[in-house]
Task: structure prediction
Amino acid sequence: MNTALKSTLIVFILSGLLGCAGGGQQRPVSQDARAADINMRLGLSYLQRGEYEVALEKLEKALQQDPGLTTAHNTIALLYQQLGQNEKAEHHFRQAVNRTPQYSEAQNNYGVYLCQQERYQEAEQRFMAAIENPLYQMAAQAYENAGVCALRSGDADKAERYFRQALQIDPELPQALIRMADISYDRQEYLQARAYVQRFQAAAAWTPQSLLTAIKTENKLNDQDAVASYKLVMRARFPDSDEAQQVNRGFYRE
Result:
């Protein structure tokens, strides 16, 4: 796998994770449970703002007040993951999914964690567990995660299947679109790669990685006007990116 893909995967995982710690189990609500839920939400807010010390304090307090609160287990697992404390992260992910197997957000997040640890088969199982819940509203993103993880493992065929399933649910899912463009490019299906790039362009803002894919594709199709146009966008928006340096050195001409 190339460096650009790995970088995109990491960013994609982290940005996706921070919006996922909602939902969970339905249980009778006591006074302690209400207080625990408030502290969990505060902890999540501090986590999203990067105030990890305060986030940890609130989440630990939430679990003291309600040790069975799976949303708190999920959120503190995300925090420990950010801090690189993998044993603690895994412990709390397991608590969340074992206590409430239908908690799809936690299943998905645990899958992302496992993929980062290169435990690809286990990660795939967690993504599928998330998708099995018919009430889960983020199934397209879980399929997309499964596809990105399959690419990371080197299985482009499986990645393609998952990306297609994601796009059946949400035809404008940016990462699935640009990864399908990359897969098509690698298979020398350049017109199809162009079509996916165009769909990406209509659905999302340019990134350095997506612009590099566009430049490489148009170069293979010998449309040098399009290459020049995309290069101008790259230099204007991302002049300091690694991808811009590759373009400047002509490395896109494979």
